[in-house]
Structure formats: structure tokens, C-alpha cells
Amino acid sequence: MGLQHNHHHHEHGSMTAKAAIASVAMALFLTVLKSWAAVETGSVALLGSLADTGFDLLASLLTLFSVRYAALPADDDHRFGHGKAEALSALVQVMLVTVSALFIGWRAVVRFGDGAPTEHPEMGIGVSLVAIAATLGLLAYQRHVIKKTGSVAIHGDHLHYQGDLLLNIAVIVALALDAFLNVRGADPLFGIAIALWLLWGAWRAASLALDQLLDKEWPLEKRQRFIEVAMRHPELKGIHDMRTRSAGAHDFCQFHVWVDPNMTVLQAHEVMDEIEAELMREFPGVEVLIHPDPEGHKDELGYIPSETVEHQDDEHEHHHP
User: Fold this and answer.
1) Is the sign of the CA dihedral 62, 68, 69, 71 positive or negative?
2) Which class for 226: exposed (0-12), middle (13-18), buried (19 or more C-beta within 10 A)?
3) Rounded mean pLDDT of the chain?
């Protein structure tokens, strides 16, 4: 059984690694192709598409390294593990995306000013069609890997590349309007729209990264579910001072519980172990720290968390101070 599990785990890791490498290879190929086309055509929309592909490449590489670093087990210097490496790499990407979006906006303003037509539009359209074909191929392969492994990282990449399809179509529309239908300004306008789309993506990534770096609490539903699972234990008289945070793929939760004041340390320890085992079943991978208090004991914390649960008439009641 153990050998079978290890083989399955190895196969899972091998498939997700191949999918990540395929993603890097395609982004590298398209970055080279679009760089050449952006120089030849002078198209702002294509420049925006190039920036997006360049960041796909950077994101794939950073993700490959940061996810591996973040997955390292805790050591003497990092007792909580290395999970925040993912959030830091996301912030680096956000800064670079913001700078490039501003550069694309500036290029668009210059193009509006000089009114120069796009050169060799057919080249830009051809490159975008190649990008669409390559992206469709990668998406099909990713779907196969997600079906087999259920990988969250590959699923995130998959959603991202679906957005890239629309971006490449937008470039084709911009070049066709500008060159063939003589709609002057279509290309820089689409360029600005793509730059704004990049900024929107950067803002969302920054919000998620900062939530992790600033130890934002879990969503309310998840906290309430956690409390419900813990409160199933008959010896547990109440929960208070619950604090939660996430770092990369790791979740942490600490809380105080009320138990019978006459319990021995050994009995209290056994109760804590049983609660932890129940929580591990429902929330695999969460690191739990439980502090036992004699029933009725109040801590002077200076801050009263919104989740304080006490048994009253054998019913669970939520108090929101």
C-alpha cells in the first residue's frame, strides 16, 4: 500500500512538473516571437501582449522556484516554514507588471501624438494566431493534467492562459481596425485597455499577497466551520481567543479552550490530542496550537476576538461583543 501511494505521489509530482515546464517553454517561445513582431510592427497592443507573455514567463519561473522553496519543511531558522516565499514572489511580479503597464500607457500616448500607422500588420496578426494555436494546445494538455492530479497550481495557470486567448484576439482586432479599416488610434486605444487589464491583475495579486504577509484571518465561513468541528468534543466547554493565518499553502490556527478545572494534565493533554485529530481529518495540513484554560477563566487580552463560543444549556452559542 505504501509503495503504491509513493508511486502515485511521484507520478503526480512528475505530471505537474512537466505541465509547469510546458508552460515555461511556451511562454519563452511566444516572448521571442512577440518581441520580434512588436519591433517590426510598432504596435502598442502587441507591445501589451508581449508584456503579458513576458510576465507569464517570469511568473512561471518564479512560481516554479518559489513554490518549491515555500514547500520546504520548517527548520531552525524558519520554525513556521517557508510559506511566505510565494507571497513575496507575487509582490515582485506585481511591481514589474505595474512598471510595464505604465510604460505601455506612455507608448500609447506617444502613438496618439505622432499618429504613425502600424507597419506590417499582417505580421502582428500572424504572430497572434500562432500564439492562440499554441495556447489552445497548452490548455488541452493542462486540462488533462488537472483531471489526473487535481493540482491547484496548474489550475491557476490554466485560468490565466484562458485570459491570454482573449488578449491575443484583442491584438488581432486592434491591428485589423487600425490597418485595414483605417480606424486611426484603435491600436494605441487597445494598448491602453491591455495595460489597464495588466494593472487590474496586478492589484488582485497584490491584495492576495499582502493578506498573507499581514497575517489576515481566514474567511468567516472557514473559521466558523473550524469552531463547529472542534466543539464536537464532549469535554470541551468553550472556545475563545482563536487566531488564524495562512502562509503559502500552509494554514495556522491557535485558540484557547475551556475544560473541567479538575482534570489532570494528562487528561487535558489527551482531550487536546483528540480535538487535534478531529480537526486534522476535516482540515488536513493545518497546524493547530491549543491552550487549555479552566472553565470560566477569562484572559485579559486587550482585544476580544469576534468568535467566542461557550456551552449554554448544552447548546453552542456565538457571542459577538
Assistant:
1) positive
2) buried
3) 81
Q: Which distant-in-sequence residues (6+ apart) come within 8 Å of 64 by Cβ?
A: 20, 24
Neighbours of 109 (CB within 10 A): 13
Query: 320 vs 103, 152, 240, 244, CA distance in Å?
Result: 49, 35, 12, 17
The residue with greater pLDDT, 242 or 69, is 242
Please state, in angstroms and rounded to a whole number, the distance separating the CA atoms of residues 113 and 73: 55
In the block, cell 500572424 appears at: 126
Tell whether the model's pLDDT for residue 222 goes beyond 80. Answer: yes
Of 312, 46, 286, 279, the C-alpha closest to 167 is: 46
Helices then strands (H, E): number in the chain?
8, 5
Distance (Å, whole) CA 239 – CA 309: 5
Radius of gyration of the chain (CA): 26
In the sheet that holds 250-259, the strands lie side by side as 286-294, 250-259, 238-247, 308-312, 315-319
For residues 101 and 199, give the distance between their C-alpha atoms in angstroms, rounded to a whole number: 6
DSSP secondary structure letter of residue 286: E
Q: How far apart are CA 59 and CA 100, in angstroms?
A: 14
SS3 315: strand
Do 51 and 11 contact (CB within 8 A), yes or no?
Answer: no
Check residue 307 and give left, alpha or beta (phi > 0: left; psi -120 to 50: alpha).
beta
Whole-number pLDDT of residue 307: 57
Cα separation, 120 vs 44, in Å, equals 13
